Every structure is written in structure tokens, then in C-alpha cells.
Sequence to fold (506 residues):
Amino acid sequence: MIHNTRPSTSLGGQWHTALPRKTLIGFLVALVAVLAMTVVSYYALQARSAGAQKIVQSLDRTGKSAEVISTLKDAERGHRGYLLLGTEAHLEPYLVALAELPRNIADLRRLAEDSPAQLQRLDVVERVAADRMAILKAGVELKRAGQSEAALELIRLGRGKQLMDRLGALIDEMQAAERATRDLSTQEWEQAVAFSTVVNWAGAAILLFLIVANAVASSQDFRQMQVQAWLRTGQNELGDLLQGEQDIDTLGGKIVDFVARYLNAQVGAVYLSETGQPLRLIGGYALPVATSNGTDSARPVGGLTERALQERSVLLVSDVPPGYFPVSSGLGAGQAKHLVLSPASADGVANAVLELGFFHTVAAHELEWLGMLAEPIGVALRTAQLRKTLALALEESQLQGEVLQSQQEELRASNEELEAQSRALQESAVRQEEQQAELEETNTQLETQAEELQSQKDGLERAQHELTLHSDELSRANRVKSEFLANMSHELRTPLNSALILSKIL
Fold:
């Protein structure tokens, strides 16, 4: 099975915070959940508190209403004792009720402010209680005035009993209304308690879920940070390994050795791609003897290795067939189960392939790391190639420089000879110029003399013509002169012409 993988460009969270992204999101969700639970719990607690307060207020109103009827009964008891025995000591409950009854009714009115129906009943209770207290007061005044029979007659009329029955019925209505209110408030309180319990349990479940989810996310983030640290450490260590001037074979051996050890690979090789040349093995890790000693390194390399080079992507081959990429040691031999082919490139041009064999499954972050190493390894190999090319060119240029230096020495000697010949020619030319000037001057003088001689000859010829008939001696003399002049002219013209011709040639 072959997998074509490309390195991921995502290296962790994109939020520049101290916490990883997933952990931060988990904390924010937990914070929102806690705030929501707090708000809901607060409203539930408020509802429970309001229900409890309503129940307490209802109990207070019931108690105050009972106090009102109890105070009136105490007043009646003190009134009867005073009428029967006539002692002021028995009148004390009446006097206490006379002071407490307005206060009790005022307290009950204050407690019933939020209930208009109870206030209406309380108005009636206040009037009835005032009528009853007025009857009791009238009986006391009659008794003090010595009209005991008249005071007892007030009792016999039964008006007081009617008012007390009326008052008891009103108090019973108020207490019945309060019981209904308490029942409703109790029901609301129980609902608030149930809702608060549900909220607490649901909040606890949500918090537990968020804690577990955040723990899982934190574990993943921690694992991601470990992976990123592992990736950066491998990049930095490889960068240190690639530093300095190294020949191509040494560099290839160091690269495959480091990568195989860092990834815990059992066998590895690195192939270099050169222009116009097949892939060449430049380094190996735990290779078989036939390959590592060079007897099998000259075979042509193609197939998946060539494909990885052309596609410039990491190839993962699972379920490697038997006999492929064997792993051997002094204790035995085995078969690599997984094969990874990772190309290296420089400026977008693939120039090498790293081939690794594994017993174990290759993780995604390991493939990502190989993809991240493609450019540094490719640039280092290209630099080594360029350095080798420059060294060869420098050696060739040095040889050419030596040849040129010997040729330059030969040319220098030739130049010196030419300069000596040039100086000799210049001196000869100067001498020729001086001779030419002398010859030109001599030629001028000879031409002048020739002209003078020619004029003399013409004069002599004229004289001869005139004296033709004179003596033979003059004729012979003339012929001798003519011959002499002719010979002289010829003798003078011949060297002059030769000198002019030689001057033109120079």
C-alpha cells in the first residue's frame, strides 16, 4: 500500500496565547458553564428564599391573628373575674389586652401589606375587636360605678358573645387563607428546591464532562507541543550537522545516518540526482554488505525512488514484499515492513531522495518532519555539488594559468627580440633618412652642375656650329668633351636613381 503524503502547514494553535488553543477553549467553555450555573443557582436560591419568606410571613400573620383573638379572650377572662370578685387584680388581663390589642392589629396589618384580601378582613376584625373592647370597657365602668347588675346585664344580652363568634370566624378565614398561601408557597419552594437540585446535578455533570474533555484536549495539546518540540529539535540538530564545507559523499552519509537514528529506522539510503546522470548512491545506513561496499551501488535506480523525485512528495509504502530492503546484523536478518521515500529539493528542484526502512509503523509527525527537511537537505547537497564544481573549475583554471604563464614568458622573450629588432630598424631608418637627405642634396647639386654643363654644352655646340669649319682639332676636342659630359652625366644619374629607389623601399 502506497500513501502519498504532503507536509502539513499547520503547526499548532493560531491564537498567540500562553495556553494552547483547545485548552483555552475548554477553560472558556467551563467558565461560561460555571457562570450560567451560578446565575441559574442564584435565581433558584432566590426562588427558594422567596418561598421560604412567604411561608414565614404567613406563619407570622397566622400567629398574630391568633394573638389578636387570644388577647381578646384574656380581656374577657379578666373582665369576668373583675365583675364576679370586684378586685382590681383580676382586671389586669383586661388592662394588658387594652394596651396590646392595637399593637397586635398594627403588626398584623404590616405583615398583611402584600395581601389586599387579608387587609379587608383585618379591617373588619379591627372594628369587631373595637366593639368588643367597648362592651368590656362599659362593663368595667359600670362595675366601678357600683352598678354590678347593669354590668352583668351587658353580659346576659349576649352581644359580646356574638362579637367574639364573629371575630373567631374572621380569624378562622384569615388563617384558612394563610394556610392556602402557605400550601402554595410550600409547593413553589419545593419546585424551586427540585429545580435547584436538577441544576446542581446537571451543572456537576456538565463540569465533569468539561473537565474530562479539557483533560483530553490538554493531553492532545501537550502531545502536539511535544511533537512540535521534537520537530524543531530535529531541524536544529540537522542544521548544525549540515554546517561547514563537506564533500558530497561525506555529507550524504551524515544525513542518512542522522535521519535514520532520529526516526529509529532500521535501514536507509540517500540517492543524488545529477544533471544527465542516473540516481547515484551517496550514503547509507545499515545497508547490506553488497550495497555498502560498492558492488551493488552501480545498478540503475528507478521505480518508486524516481517517482518520489519527480512528484517531490513523501511516499509511504506499507506491507513491503519479501526480499525488499532487507535488514541484517551479526545476529540475524529481517525484513522492513514499511518503506518511506522522501525527496529533497532546492528552490523547487528535486535533487535527492532519502529512502528509509522501518519495522514499526511510521507516524504522521515523522512524515511531516521528513517533508520539513526536504529544503535544508536539498540546499546543503546543492551547495556541496556547487562547491565540488567550483573546486574542479579552480583546479582547471590553475592548470590553464600555468600554461598561460609559460606562454606569457615565451611571448615576453619574443617581445624582447622584436623590440631589439625594432630598435635596429629604427636606427637603420634614421641612417637611411640621413643618407637620403645627403643623396637628395647631392642630386640637387649634380642637377645644377648638369644644367650648367648642359648650358655650357649648348654654348659650345653653338660655338662649334659657328666654328665647324675651323680646325679638326676643335672637332676632336668637342667630341672628347661631349663624351666626357655624357659619361659624367651617366655616372652621376645611376647612383642617384639607385639611392632614390632604396629610399622608397625603406
Remarks:
- Residues 364-466 form the longest helix (103 residues).
